[in-house]
Design a protein that fits this description.
Number of helices: 11
Helix content: 25-40%
Strand content: 15-25%
Number of strands: 12
CATH topology: TIM Barrel
Distance between the termini: 51 Å
Order of helices and strands: HEEEHEHEEEHEHEHHEHEHHEH
Shape: globular
């Protein structure tokens, strides 16, 4: 009987060291950006009920949090502000002594080399919870751009290393780039939320940032989850307007989009592993249904395999600890 010829792919899976040798995708702690929610007040460390292990932290307790972040080798954070007072135009977002601006100064005082990404949006600061100026129930595009430019400049003045506009207004990158350049911040890059879907995965974040819309939804400015080609149009516009990084948000249900964007644009691609994706794993692990570390690390590896160069994730501290154990 003639012997059947076939490939023996299992030869390269025979041992742990063999599997490690041929592994194609590697996670590094430098890949992660850790989100922080900074709240006004004193001695505030409030765990977000829908995000176990994530806290709203006041400025006086920020140093302790930064100590841990830096000790784990994490080199980048993204700051979200949780102000006490809000108004219809989100003036706290662009106030020179707003919560993100003050948090940035505090970070730079203790750890000047830690990269600070400033989330540049209005929704946490508006009393209606939308990402711009509202008139007759509709978010005005061009009028909102003026406030976003003011916000970006004030964040850069405070010491932010990267401006990350997340509002999805048309022309927001061009407007912010021009504003930063004219204010003397030509060296500050823009990490654009270029591909941001109107997703159901954002619920826990809105608890953390107190940014739930008070009426309607954000579907007139965030993208339809059913659309793929639209993502390429959005990314192309932002690249042409001067974006230095492209964010795809959410990440887990949009790995095809991450790969599309990676294949089409020569820029660092950032996957935002959002709050709902984090909380799903935390909840399942708390019930004993899954191995949290195994599932989280598989997810993060998958995002990098899909094309992400950088991952914004609430798992950053946990993942950094797991990577340390693996190397030990």
């Amino acid at each position: 009987m003639e012997k059947v010829q076939f490939k023996r792919h299992r030869r390269l899976r025979h041992s742990a060291n063999m599997r490690s040798m041929v592994r194609e995708t590697h996670l590094h702690v430098e890949d992660f950006i850790y989100p922080l929610f900074i709240v006004e007040g004193e001695n505030e460390r409030n765990e977000v009920s829908s995000m176990p292990g994530v806290f709203q932290i006041s400025l006086d307790l920020l140093k302790e949090e930064l100590d841990e972040i830096v000790s784990l080798g994490i080199k980048s954070i993204i700051l979200f502000g949780v102000p006490k007072e809000k108004d219809d135009c989100g003036s706290g977002a662009y106030h020179d002594h707003g919560i993100v601006q003050e948090a940035t100064r505090e970070v730079k005082k203790h750890y000047p080399e830690l990269l600070v990404v400033a989330d540049t949006c209005l929704c946490e600061y508006t009393d209606h919870g939308h990402c711009g100026v509202v008139e007759n129930g509709y978010v005005l595009n061009d009028e909102s751009l003026e406030l976003l430019v003011k916000t970006a400049i004030s964040q850069a003045k405070a010491g932010a290393d990267i401006i990350a506009p997340s509002n999805m207004m048309d022309g927001f990158v061009a407007a912010i780039r021009q504003g930063l350049d004219e204010a003397g911040f030509v060296h500050i890059p823009i990490m654009s939320y270029a591909v941001k879907y109107s997703s159901a995965f954002y619920g826990p974040f809105r608890d953390a940032a107190n940014s739930t819309p008070q009426f309607g939804d954000r579907k007139t400015y965030q993208m339809d989850p059913a659309n793929r080609m639209e993502a390429l149009r959005e990314a192309q516009s932002d690249m042409e307007e001067g974006a230095d990084f492209i964010i795809v948000k959410p990440a887990l249900a949009y790995m095809d989009i991450i790969r599309d964007v990676k294949n089409n644009f020569n820029a660092p691609i950032v996957a935002y592993n959002v709050s709902g994706e984090y909380s799903l794993i935390k909840a399942a692990a708390a019930n004993g249904w899954i191995d949290e570390e195994a599932v989280a690390m598989e997810m993060l590896t998958g995002l990098k395999r899909a094309g992400a160069d950088i991952i914004i994730t609430y798992f950053a501290k946990d993942a950094a600890k797991w990577l340390q154990i693996t190397k030990a």
